[in-house]
Structure formats: structure tokens, C-alpha cells
């Protein structure tokens, strides 16, 4: 198999994993509280992220990176996985998965806006148009297509879903400045967060979980937090054109809606599908200059 084919293989695997995320979150939260889900997911994700470090004999590098960048590691580890997933799980706990998932998906637009604000990157007309379109999609989903805000959508849940996009975009802003090896850095972030999430679980919850809940947490940690990151990184490294591979992520939210309906039994509201389509259209519009430029090469 060529590197090009391998890139698409790993990218499609990642899309498949990401498509199960909303269902796995919502399903696991039926059996676990937020702190339990976070802690046990961090246990499994830390283990998964540590495996390639050990196989590549980078344990010394892991220790050196910790000594050289422990402040940055603590900061980023607190943001992701700690704060980000606490907020995201809380949003999923309050909202139907079909609402929380598309709203969280707008983090890419938030990243563009924050990059302009904090990194001085110029906003194009495509960025501004995409922002308007994406948030029009959020409004459609939040109101379920109603002309008023009288629909039964938890406002705190919606706010938390929006806040999660700010946190995730902030994480990637910091990531852009991070000079550490990315796989080692991600492993360090989760290893640092693990004892903190354990303390949080001990203070605000407990470690008594049933096997069903534990299985859900392990799935989230292994596939959403662990393997998805490793496979996506590998896909981008192998790809001759990273932007073409990146467009595959737009398959994920639609597959996710199908799984939400199939596994969780949520009846997908037409407004959710319309709103998600609008959001993805906005994200594609924002990527349009990059796609056109790469196709011309």
C-alpha cells in the first residue's frame, strides 16, 4: 500500500472513530457521572498514548520534555483533557447528542477567529462569511427550526457546548506555539492530567462504577482521546496533500447523527440535519481558498 493510500486509510479510520464520539459520550453518561467518565477515559487514553512512546524508545525524550517544558505541559494538560472534557461532558449531560455534537463542531470557526485575535492572522471574506453561516446553523439547531426561542433546549447545556469550542480552540492556539514532539507532548498532557482527574473524581464523585459504564469510559479513552489522535497524526504525515485528507472530517458529523439515531434512539429533528448541513457548508467555505490553491498545484 502506498503512503497516499495509507493516509486515506488512517484518515477514514479516524473519521469512523470520531463518528462514534457523540453516541459514546451520551451512552456512557447514562452509567457514569462526568468525573468518573473523565478519569477512567484518561486512564485508558494515557495507556494508549504511552504505547508508541515505549515502542519507539522515547521514554527518555518524554522525561526530557517534561523537565524542559513542565509549565507548558501543566497548562495544556489542564486545558486538554481536564477542563475541555469536563465542560464537553457537562454539555452532553444536559443536551440531546444531536444538538451538542453539531454545536461543538463549530470549534474550527472559533479557532479562525481566535487566531486573528491572538496571533494577528488576517480574516478573509471567506472566514467572515463562514462564521455567519456556521452560527446561523447553530441557531437553526438551537431553536429546532422555530421562529422563537421557546423550544425545550437547555440554555446552560447550549452555553457549555459553545464554551467547549472556545476551550478547544484555545488548546490549538497553544498547540501552534508548542515546540515539543506532538506524540510525546500529547502523552505528557494526559499523564499529567491523570492524577488531577483522579483527585477530582475522589472529591466530587467516587470510583465505584459498573462494568457497562467502565466499558463506555474505556471506549472513549481508547478511541476518541487516544487512537483517533495517533491515526489522524499519521494520516497527515503520510499525505501528499494534507488539506485533501482533512476534508474527510466533514463526513464525521453526518455519520454521527446516524449512529445517534441507531444506538441512542434519538429521533433526528429535521432542523438538526438542516443546521448541521449549514455548519458544514460554512466550514467548507472557510476551507475553499486552501482547497482551490492545492488543486491548482
Detailed description of the structure:
The protein is mainly α. 80% of the residues lie in helices and 0% in strands. It has 14 helices and no strands. It has helices at 3-19, 21-28, 34-55, 59-68, 70-94, 97-104, 107-118, 125-143, 155-176, 182-204, 211-238, 242-246, 252-264, 270-295. 41% of the residues are buried. The mean pLDDT is 89.
How much strand content do the residues show? Answer: under 5%
Q: What structural class should be given to the helix and strand makeup?
A: mainly alpha
The percent range for helix content is: over 70%
Most strands sheet: none
Shape: globular
Provide the residue-averaged pLDDT: 89
Number of helices: 14
Order of helices and strands: HHHHHHHHHHHHHH
Domain count: 1
Distance between the termini: 24 Å
Low-confidence stretches: none
The Rg value, from CA coordinates, equals 19 Å
Give the total of beta strands.
0
Amino acid at each position: 500500500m502506498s503512503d497516499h493510500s495509507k493516509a486515506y486509510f488512517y484518515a477514514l479510520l479516524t473519521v469512523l472513530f470520531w463518528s462514534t464520539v457523540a453516541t459514546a459520550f451520551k451512552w456512557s453518561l447514562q452509567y457514569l457521572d462526568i468525573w468518573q467518565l473523565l478519569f477512567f477515559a484518561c486512564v485508558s487514553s494515557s495507556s494508549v498514548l504511552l504505547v508508541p512512546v515505549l515502542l519507539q524508545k522515547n521514554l527518555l525524550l518524554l522525561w526530557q520534555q517534561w523537565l524542559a517544558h513542565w509549565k507548558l505541559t501543566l497548562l495544556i494538560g489542564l486545558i486538554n483533557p481536564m477542563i475541555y472534557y469536563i465542560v464537553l461532558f457537562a454539555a452532553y449531560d444536559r443536551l440531546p447528542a444531536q444538538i451538542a455534537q453539531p454545536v461543538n463542531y463549530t470549534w474550527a470557526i472559533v479557532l479562525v477567529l481566535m487566531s486573528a485575535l491572538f496571533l494577528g492572522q488576517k480574516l478573509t471574506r471567506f472566514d467572515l462569511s463562514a462564521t455567519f453561516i456556521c452560527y446561523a446553523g447553530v441557531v437553526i439547531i438551537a431553536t429546532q427550526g422555530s421562529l422563537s426561542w421557546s423550544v425545550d433546549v437547555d440554555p446552560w447545556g447550549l452555553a457549555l457546548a459553545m464554551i467547549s469550542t472556545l476551550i478547544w480552540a484555545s488548546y490549538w492556539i497553544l498547540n501552534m506555539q508548542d515546540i515539543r514532539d506532538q506524540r510525546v507532548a500529547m502523552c505528557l498532557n494526559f499523564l499529567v492530567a491523570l492524577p488531577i482527574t483522579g483527585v477530582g473524581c475522589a472529591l466530587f464523585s467516587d470510583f465505584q462504577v459498573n462494568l457497562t459504564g467502565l466499558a463506555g469510559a474505556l471506549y472513549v479513552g481508547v478511541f476518541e482521546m487516544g487512537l483517533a489522535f495517533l491515526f489522524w497524526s499519521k494520516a497527515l504525515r503520510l499525505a501528499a496533500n494534507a488539506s485533501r485528507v482533512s476534508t474527510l472530517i466533514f463526513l464525521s458529523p453526518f455519520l454521527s447523527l446516524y449512529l445517534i439515531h441507531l444506538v441512542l434512539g434519538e429521533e433526528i429533528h429535521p432542523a438538526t440535519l438542516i443546521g448541521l448541513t449549514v455548519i458544514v457548508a460554512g466550514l467548507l467555505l472557510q476551507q475553499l481558498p486552501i482547497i482551490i490553491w492545492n488543486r491548482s498545484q
